Amino acid sequence: MASKVFRTGTKQVFLPDHTITLLRNRENQPPNFASFRVPLTFNKLDIRDYLLHAYNVPVLGVRSQLTQRRPRRSKMHHRIYRPPPVKTMTVELHKPFAWPKPPEDLTAWNSPQLEKRHEEMEKQKKWQKKSQTKGTLPLREELGATAERISLREEARRILKEGTWSNDRRLDPKFTEGKRDA
Known about the structure:
The protein has 182 residues and is of the alpha+beta class. The protein has helices at 44-55, 112-134, 140-143, 147-162, 173-181, and strands at 21-23, 33-38, 59-67, 72-73, 80-81, 86-93. The strands form 2 sheets. A 4-stranded antiparallel sheet has the order 1-2-6-3, covered by helices on one side. Strands 4-5 form a two-stranded antiparallel sheet. The termini are far apart. The relative contact order is 0.10.
């Protein structure tokens, strides 16, 4: 592979206001090519200078593509409009780049709260699909009471029976003194 000689840019950017996304290679794409999703204002010289100065990656060539998106209907006015196009740049690298393999064990990223939220989302999807196929929404008795609903019901019965409620916190004296005087 012969390296090309080119002039680099002299414009210094300390706090960039653009987002560049490295995309996964397509199946038929060689490993020495990398694709990036870039802003519409980006040009070939910008991506080459960015990769050279930010990551010290020499670039042999750059190809840019503008992909038009499908027309959509606006949610507010129900008019048909075309969203702005997506600009991708394919860069020929001096050395090939290989994506790292995804980790086998995901427990470091999946917290118990995330797992619980995922289970709730799956339950919600199943419920929505069932209601869409039937065409009706299930009654409250068909769904069954959740644990939170049952505990709330028991607490309400206890409060109605005893007639008092306390949160076991001491109030600040400045709030209770005014009531004694009145």
